[in-house]
Each structure stands twice: as C-alpha cells, then as structure tokens.
Amino acid sequence: MSETANTKPELDAPEGPAPTELVVEDIVVGTGEEALASSTVDVHYLGVEYDSGEEFDSSWSRGESINFPLRSLIQGWQVGIPGMKVGGRRKIIVPPAQAYGNAGGHPLAGKTLIFVIDLLGVS
What we know:
- It is built from two helices and six strands, in the order βββαβαββ.
- The protein is globular, with a radius of gyration of 13 Å.
- The chain has helices at 59-62, 75-80; strands spanning 23-28, 40-49, 55-58, 66-69, 89-94, 113-122.
- Strands 1, 2, 3, 4, 5 and 6 form a six-stranded antiparallel beta sheet that branches.
- The termini are far apart.
- By secondary structure, the chain is mainly beta.
- Helices cover 8% and strands 33% of the residues.
- The protein has a single domain, classed as Chitinase A, domain 3 (Roll).
- It catalyses: [protein]-peptidylproline (omega=180) = [protein]-peptidylproline (omega=0).
- It comes from Leucobacter ruminantium.
- Residues 38-123 form the PPIase FKBP-type domain.
- Residues 1-20 are annotated as: Disordered.
C-alpha cells in the first residue's frame, strides 16, 4: 500500500474472508485538527470492493477532494473517521451493515468495502 499522503493510494488485494466488524487502521497519523462526529470533513478517498478488489469510487480519479458533513455519510465513515487528525491517512474496512445495507437498492448493497481516506481539513 502506498503510504505517501497527497498521492492516490494503492491497495493490495485483501486475504481471507471479509471482516464482519468495522476495521479502522491508521496508515499515517495526522498532526492537525481532529475530526469529530459533528465535523464537516474535506477528504480524498479511494473505495474498493473487498471481494473483487475493484475500485468503485475515488475522489483522486476526479481530481478534487470532497467536502461533506460526517453525519450525512455511511455509518462506517461516521464511526471510522472521528478521532482522525488532519494530515492523516486511514484505512477503513466497512461491512455491509455499516455501508449500504445487506440487500437491494444500492449497487454496493451486500458488499464489504475498503476505503483509504486522507483527511485534508475539518470544519
């Protein structure tokens, strides 16, 4: 995995079965302001499916970060980002129940997702 902030991360294919609980792993620990559950965050992120390793979304590919209130995001982000500090890079593995649910409606329903998130700012 790439550990250089400000560049798009690369993920190695995960091994073994997908975890059933949220996994939060700091790749780079930031030194800036800490994100709170009530924060609006400015992030760059990469999202891949756990089972296939296929990228399904990336702010890096669009060439611009995304800014949004944490409370409006999937539960895995609402739980996995608070405590992270600006300048940090964190990997979050999100089971379906904390992502897009277990069935129907969303193309990613029923899938465990891996996100690598760079926290650029907090407000």
